């Protein structure tokens, strides 16, 4: 059961005639905190305590997005420059499905070369190389999800 | 037939909104949720949850097969598509019919009639509505001629677009050719349909829309809404009724919308979008949205109806339970959308975990949200976190309540548009009422100049 806005309104009417300026209500399903602010108005903080009643076993959930190949340099190098995602989102190597990738391993790039796009909340954000050099590593597969600050690629600034 | 179990093929606040009505009507809800939403607030409140697919919308909320598969697995007798995603997809409506599941929305033919913007334009003309000067263009030569006829600036629109996407403004003849090429390739990529058309760009325009409801025979209107506060054609604030409209214009708008609905023998909830030319005191048909809209609460506030309940009743095959004469519109309501965006960085999305969410409660205030302390805003979907709606006996009371409500609300952990919206509501142009669609740009410039930051 959930409280409707009308229910909350009725509770506040009761509280208005009381000396109390806050109320916490908890059931096995939810917790509701009501507070009176300085101007006399009320605000609420809600918490749903119920867990989701998932119809299918969670094991199925593990099967997730298709992840393309990852291209790495053979030797771990510390002099490479990281290209990080500007935002958490889906990493795409090409401008649109079926189109060739922006860059391949070994491609020569300038600081302002677009090397990928990251889609966050329906917005496409261009990812720039950030440094001149060659693409030394592509750390994520096409269409995989990049968490905040994840390294997408590495640029070798010393390569000719 | 009485519906007993509805599959909700959507997420976020609209999923919860549909659930609320279902709960009141005693209808069981099954939420179809992607992997990113399995632990969302709507998932925890639904009677049951069924896995729809991976987080990426293309494989879950936008997949007709996944959605129909979930409805079958749930044993649902109907499907509510919400807004966005597949809500206006004729293929989904057909696939539901084939699976013996009621699609809560218009018929597939009606979805096709309004989904193609050029076809919608011809239906509007056939129903006696005025459309913005313009038309379809098949080559550059046509476009140059038509644009000259219509007069610059012109707007290039995608036939398969809508919801503000796929539009380009061209200021002068010199920019037409390049804009056409870009528009065609973008339309093909975004909507799978390269067709475009031209329309006159109305500089001092207001976006006014009329809510209609039909049962396949009768069509009624539930008044106007003004949605002129927009950013890149995305609505930020909506109100009902549209303020500062000459009464005869308002009546003609109502009539036009009902005529359009009757022409289609419309079934379900729909919105006829109009562009009001303030200088000419004239309006043009823009498009029709064949679904429930984000801004439906402001209409509910002035007509006293539960629009989701009305959708369900029509889907059950029942006739409208009231006539136009029985629709009473009273008071005024304003809604503002709170998004997870950083306006000071060009409205960059701000997904993440909401550490704290506090919303106002009080007389005339309604908050539709799927956000509570600890909730996640996943990076995969749109950025809407909450809609704060205030109703009053008149516009100034509604506005006063809404300002107070925003002051008492707080969202921490992600960057939100809460403060920006509060400033916007207090800005002179909005307080005066009836700003045009270019108002937000002007407001933002002065807000920035005044030294405000995120």
What can you tell me about this protein's structure?
The complex is a heterodimer of chains A (160) and B (454). Chain A has 160 residues and is mostly beta strands. Chain A contains 1 helix and 11 strands. In chain A, a hairpin with a 2-residue loop joins strand 7 and strand 8. Chain A is elongated and about 80 Å long. Chain B has 3 domains: 100 residues, Rossmann fold (3-Layer(aba) Sandwich); 68 residues, ATP-grasp fold, A domain (Dna Ligase, domain 1), CATH 3.30.1490.20; 245 residues, D-amino Acid Aminotransferase, Chain A, domain 1 (2-Layer Sandwich). In chain B, 34% of the residues lie in helices and 30% in strands. Chains A and B meet through helix 1 and strand 3 of A and helix 1, helix 2, strand 3, strand 17 and strand 19 of B.
How would you describe the oligomerization state of the chains in this entry?
heterodimer
CATH topology of the largest domain in chain B: D-amino Acid Aminotransferase, Chain A, domain 1
The largest pleated sheet of chain B is described as: 8 strands, antiparallel
Structure annotation, total helices of chain A: 1
Side by side, the strands of the main sheet of chain A go 4-11-9-6
Strand content of chain A: 35-45%
Cα distance spanning the termini of chain A: 67 Å
Shape category of chain B: globular
Estimate the helix proportion of chain B, in percent: 25-40%
Weakly predicted, low-confidence segments of chain B: none
Q: Would you identify the regions of chain A where 5 or more consecutive residues have pLDDT less than 50? A: 57-67
Radius of gyration of chain B, in Å, reads: 21 Å
CATH class of the largest domain in chain B: Alpha Beta
Order of helices and strands of chain A: HEEEEEEEEEEE
Strand residues, percent of chain B: 25-35%
């Amino acid at each position: 059961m959930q409280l409707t806005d009308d229910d909350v309104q009725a509770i506040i009417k009761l509280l208005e005639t009381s000396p109390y300026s806050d109320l916490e209500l908890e059931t096995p399903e939810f917790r509701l905190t009501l507070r009176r602010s300085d101007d006399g108005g009320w605000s609420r903080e809600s918490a749903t305590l119920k867990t989701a009643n998932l119809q299918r076993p969670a094991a199925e959930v593990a099967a997730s997005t298709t992840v393309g190949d990852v291209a790495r340099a053979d030797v771990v190098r510390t002099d490479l420059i990281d290209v990080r995602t500007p935002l958490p989102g889906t990493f795409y190597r090409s401008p649109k499905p079926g189109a060739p990738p922006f860059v391949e391993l070994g491609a020569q790039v300038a600081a302002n070369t677009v090397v990928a796009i990251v889609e966050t909340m329906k917005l496409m954000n261009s990812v720039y190389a950030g440094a001149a050099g060659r693409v030394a590593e592509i750390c994520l597969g096409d269409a995989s999800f990049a968490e905040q600050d994840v390294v997408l690629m590495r640029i070798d600034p010393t390569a000719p | 037939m009485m519906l007993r179990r509805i599959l909700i093929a959507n997420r976020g606040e609209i999923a919860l909104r549909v659930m609320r009505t279902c709960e009141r009507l005693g209808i069981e809800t099954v939420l179809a949720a992607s992997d990113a939403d399995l632990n969302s607030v709507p998932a925890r409140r639904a009677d049951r949850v069924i896995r729809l697919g991976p987080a990426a919308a293309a494989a879950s909320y936008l997949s007709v097969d996944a959605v129909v598969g979930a409805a079958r697995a749930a044993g649902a007798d109907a499907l509510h598509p919400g807004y966005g995603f597949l809500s206006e997809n004729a293929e989904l409506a057909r696939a539901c019919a084939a699976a013996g599941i009621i699609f809560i929305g218009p018929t597939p033919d009606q979805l096709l009639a309004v989904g193609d913007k050029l076809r919608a334009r011809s239906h509007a003309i056939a129903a006696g509505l005025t459309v913005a000067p313009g038309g379809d263009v098949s080559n550059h030569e046509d476009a140059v001629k038509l644009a000259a006829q219509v007069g610059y600036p012109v707007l290039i629109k995608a036939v398969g677009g809508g919801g503000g996407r796929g539009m380009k403004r061209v200021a002068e003849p010199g920019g037409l050719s390049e804009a056409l090429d870009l528009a065609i390739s973008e339309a093909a990529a975004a909507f799978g349909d390269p067709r475009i058309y031209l329309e006159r760009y109305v500089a001092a325009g207001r976006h006014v829309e009329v809510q209609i409801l039909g049962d396949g025979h009768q069509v009624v209107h539930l008044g106007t809404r003004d949605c002129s506060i927009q950013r890149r054609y995305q609505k930020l604030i909506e109100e009902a009724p549209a303020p500062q409209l000459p009464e005869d214009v308002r009546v003609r708008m109502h009539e036009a919308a009902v005529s359009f609905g009757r022409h289609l023998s419309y079934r379900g909830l729909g919105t006829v979008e109009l562009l009001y030319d303030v200088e000419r005191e004239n309006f043009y048909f823009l498009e029709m949205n064949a679904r429930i809209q984000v801004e439906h609460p402001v209409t509910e506030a002035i007509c006293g109806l539960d629009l989701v309940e009305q959708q369900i009743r029509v889907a059950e095959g029942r006739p409208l339970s009231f006539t136009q004469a029985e629709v009473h519109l009273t008071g005024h309501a304003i809604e503002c959308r709170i998004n997870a965006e950083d306006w000071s960085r060009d409205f960059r999305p701000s997904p993440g975990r909401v550490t704290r969410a506090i919303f106002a409660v009080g007389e005339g205030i309604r908050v539709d949200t799927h956000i509570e302390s600890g909730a996640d805003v996943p990076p995969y979907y749109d950025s809407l976190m909450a809609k704060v709606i205030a109703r009053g006996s008149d516009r100034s009371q509604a506005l006063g309540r809404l300002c107070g409500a925003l002051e008492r609300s707080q969202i921490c952990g992600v960057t939100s548009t809460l403060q920006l919206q509060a400033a916007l509501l207090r800005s002179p142009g909005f307080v005066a009422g009836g700003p045009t669609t270019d108002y937000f740009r002007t407001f933002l410039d002065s807000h920035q100049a005044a030294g405000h930051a995120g």
